[in-house]
């Protein structure tokens, strides 16, 4: 075997290795049809510390709608179709911060067993109360700014609610999965799930107020598959 042949085989090997795991992309938009509810102003008067951090007040974030009905904070994930494939959980943690008397982000995803690191960027007492049905619950006080709490959920569950018992308006939701194929819609309602193996999948979109929608999509190697999910305000049909 000469040098040219060897180089050709190496190049071919690198090409095949690079494309074998490239997969496709699932992308799209989530919209809310009908007149969205007007967000209520959060009453933070019970804790002067929260009032001080939010001099202009804060609005309820359970329904965040942008131009054209774009719906934010929707958890979109592959529900069925991956079969018995297994995936390695990331070594980097998922971060939830308690900042300005709100959980940031409100909606997020993590893999089973992945570290979830909860921060307290406020300089006073918060309480993190996670209420999974399939993993061990935890309820931990975080009385000082700069504190960090590390936890894991050991079973898949969509979704795990988290609240603060000190500040009743604080809420977060974690989608826990055995795979990394999930996303949360941005303020423009867009989601993007990368590196999906070719195949046909059931994709679900979850929203804390409007429930779930599902769709079937075929993903092809190196291509983009597009979906649109439409939620409706009650009585807007």
Set down the secondary structure blueprint.
Blueprint: H1 3-20, E1 24-33, H2 48-53, E2 75-80, E3 94-99, E4 102-104, E5 107-111, E6 116-120, E7 126-130, E8 138-142, E9 148-151, E10 157-163, E11 171-177, E12 182-184, E13 190-196, E14 199-207, E15 211-219, E16 224-232
Shape: globular
Q: C-alpha Rg, in Å?
A: 21 Å
Q: What is the name of the CATH topology of the largest domain?
A: Immunoglobulin-like
Number of domains: 2
CATH superfamily descriptor of the largest domain? Immunoglobulins
Task: Give a verbal description of the structure.
This protein has helices at 3-20, 48-53; strands spanning 24-33, 75-80, 94-99, 102-104, 107-111, 116-120, 126-130, 138-142, 148-151, 157-163, 171-177, 182-184, 190-196, 199-207, 211-219, 224-232. It folds into two domains: 23-80 and 184-237, Immunoglobulins (Immunoglobulin-like, Sandwich); 88-178, Immunoglobulin-like, CATH 2.60.40.420. The protein is mainly beta. It has a five-stranded mixed sheet, with no helix packed on it.
Brief digest:
The chain has helices at 3-20, 48-53; strands at 24-33, 75-80, 94-99, 102-104, 107-111, 116-120, 126-130, 138-142, 148-151, 157-163, 171-177, 182-184, 190-196, 199-207, 211-219, 224-232. It is mostly beta strands and 237 residues long.
Write out key terms for the chains shown:
globular, Immunoglobulin-like, mainly beta, five-stranded mixed sheet, four-stranded antiparallel sheet, single chain, 2 helices, 2 domains
């Amino acid at each position: 075997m000469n040098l040219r042949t060897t180089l050709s085989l190496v190049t071919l090997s690198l090409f095949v290795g690079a494309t074998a795991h490239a997969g496709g992309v699932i992308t799209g938009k989530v919209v809310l049809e009908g007149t969205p509810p007007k967000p209520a102003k959060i009453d933070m008067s019970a804790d002067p510390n929260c009032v001080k951090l939010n001099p202009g007040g804060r609005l309820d974030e359970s329904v965040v709608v942008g131009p054209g009905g774009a719906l934010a904070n929707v958890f979109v994930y592959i529900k069925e179709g991956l079969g018995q494939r297994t995936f390695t959980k990331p070594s980097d943690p998922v971060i939830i911060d308690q900042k300005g008397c709100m959980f940031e982000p409100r909606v997020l995803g993590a893999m089973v067993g992945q570290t979830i690191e909860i921060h307290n960027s406020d300089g006073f007492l918060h309480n993190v109360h996670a209420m999974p049905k399939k993993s061990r619950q935890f309820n931990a006080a975080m009385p000082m700014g700069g504190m960090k709490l590390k936890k894991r959920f050991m079973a898949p569950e969509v979704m795990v609610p988290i609240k603060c018992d000190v500040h009743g308006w604080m809420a977060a939701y974690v989608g826990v999965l055995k795979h990394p194929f999930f996303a949360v819609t941005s303020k423009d309602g867009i989601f993007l799930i990368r590196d999906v193996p070719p195949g046909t999948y059931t994709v679900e979109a979850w929203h804390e107020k409007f429930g779930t929608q599902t769709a079937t999509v075929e993903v092809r190697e190196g291509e983009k598959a597009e979906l649109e999910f439409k939620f409706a305000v009650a009585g807007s049909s």
